[in-house]
Design a protein that fits this description.
With about 400 residues, the protein is an alpha+beta fold. It has five helices and 18 strands. It is rod-shaped.
């Protein structure tokens, strides 16, 4: 298309062109010939460039496809949280490296029981953390929250429970400088209590065991504030059957500070179950109840006497004349006590006289025997009345009898 235009005014940057119907068109003066001035007539040819238009469209479509594949098909991944190790008072958590795709990182936060515990430093480099000072045998909930320019992404909740004092499986020991025999003994003790040994100090190392405080691993343990103890600490845990304090097992600690208990010893769950089975076979009944041993037998009642004298059901017969004695006089009144004349007589006037055999001295009434001669000792003893008497047991060397009125 050919168009004829009249130049009206030419400035440094813009020229004013007039059409045949007196319309003004501002046109860049740099595109006009250099000899153009006001009143000049120029012809301008206008046509469509199909080839250039097609190439431009292809370039634009390629750019859109690149943007879609780079920014539209990938997004940040939610973090995956795991428990690496748990002890009585600490938990070690780990997660996969953070995947941001094309988004920008804002922060990575750790939450404990629904409350923010803190931000993870260097989230693009760190993949684990350790929480200390927790309660023994307590359940905790943890989660990671990733904030990016593309949105917020949270991990699944992780439930972890700290161990009991008798659970030693969470102990992770790193051995240091020690003699080879001591190292073998340490390895055996660690295996027996169910703990683990790692050669290098890691974030889940709970104790560094050595005999000398030197070496690269020792320096790393001190820097990470890991307890450095002697091999006797592992033996103490095995002996007590639970985790023991480290205060008395430091390299320079006084052995007197070690608190040694009764030494119950460590037993694996399989051994404990075996002992329960053995005990159950010997003492339990088919229905799981204890064996019936019968009702407890009642003890025979004791007499009020403090000399453990046995009260006979019938009054003792009087001594026969052949024995050289005389019949005992009747007992005196019950409520007529008298003072003892001397130290060899009875403490109470209720005691009757003791007939003696010829040639033998009579025994005082207070020297009665405490041995029971009655063959029917299992029978209950009847309380004595005023008309009954107490007899001392008969001995082989004396035929005398003592009648005591109660």
């Amino acid at each position: 298309m050919l168009i004829s235009l009249t130049v009206g005014k030419v400035d440094a940057g813009v020229a004013v062109l007039l059409t045949e119907d007196k319309r003004l068109i501002e046109f860049p003066s740099i595109l006009l010939p250099p000899s153009i001035s006001s009143g000049s007539i120029v012809d301008i040819t206008v046509s469509r460039n199909i080839a250039s238009e097609t190439a431009s469209q292809k370039s634009f479509q390629a750019l859109q496809s690149a943007i879609l594949s780079t920014y539209g098909q990938q997004s940040p991944s939610p973090p995956v949280l795991r428990c690496r190790n748990a002890t009585q008072t600490s938990i070690v958590l780990e997660w996969d490296p953070v995947s941001l795709a094309t988004a920008e990182l804002r922060n990575l936060s750790l939450y404990k029981n629904g409350s923010k515990a803190g931000n993870i430093p260097k989230p693009m480099e760190m993949t684990s953390t350790k929480l200390s000072g927790l309660a023994v045998d307590t359940e905790y909930n943890f989660s990671l929250v990733l904030r990016t320019s593309a949105g917020v992404y949270s991990s699944e909740k992780l439930v972890v429970r700290t161990q009991k004092m008798t659970d030693l499986s969470g102990i992770t020991v790193t051995p240091g400088i020690m003699a080879p025999p001591l190292r073998e003994s340490l390895t055996g003790a660690v295996d027996r209590i169910g703990a683990k040994i790692v050669e290098n100090v890691r974030i889940d190392t709970t104790h560094f065991v050595c005999m000398e405080g030197r070496g690269r691993e020792w320096e790393k343990a001190v820097e990470m504030n890991i307890p450095v103890v002697r091999p006797e600490w592992v033996e103490g845990c095995e002996r007590e059957g639970r985790i023991v304090g480290v205060r008395g097992y430091y390299l320079n600690a006084d052995p007197k500070l070690r608190q040694v208990g009764q030494g119950i010893g460590f037993q694996s769950p399989q051994r404990q179950q075996q002992q329960r089975s053995e005990m159950g076979q010997g003492t339990s009944m088919p229905n799981g109840s204890l064996p019936n041993r019968g009702p407890p037998q009642a003890l025979p009642p004791t007499t009020p006497s403090t000399n453990n004298l046995r009260v006979s059901d019938q009054p003792p017969p009087p001594p026969s004349p052949s024995e050289g004695g005389s019949p005992a006089p009747p007992p005196p009144e019950k409520d007529t006590p008298r003072d003892a004349p001397n130290s060899q007589t009875s403490a109470s006037q209720s005691t009757a006289s003791v007939p003696a055999s010829p040639g033998r001295e009579s025994l005082p009434s207070h020297t009665t025997s405490t041995e029971a001669i009655d063959e029917h000792s299992s029978q209950s003893v009847k309380p004595a009345t005023q008309d009954r008497s107490v007899t001392s047991p008969k001995r082989e060397d004396s035929a005398s009898m003592v009648d005591v009125a109660l």
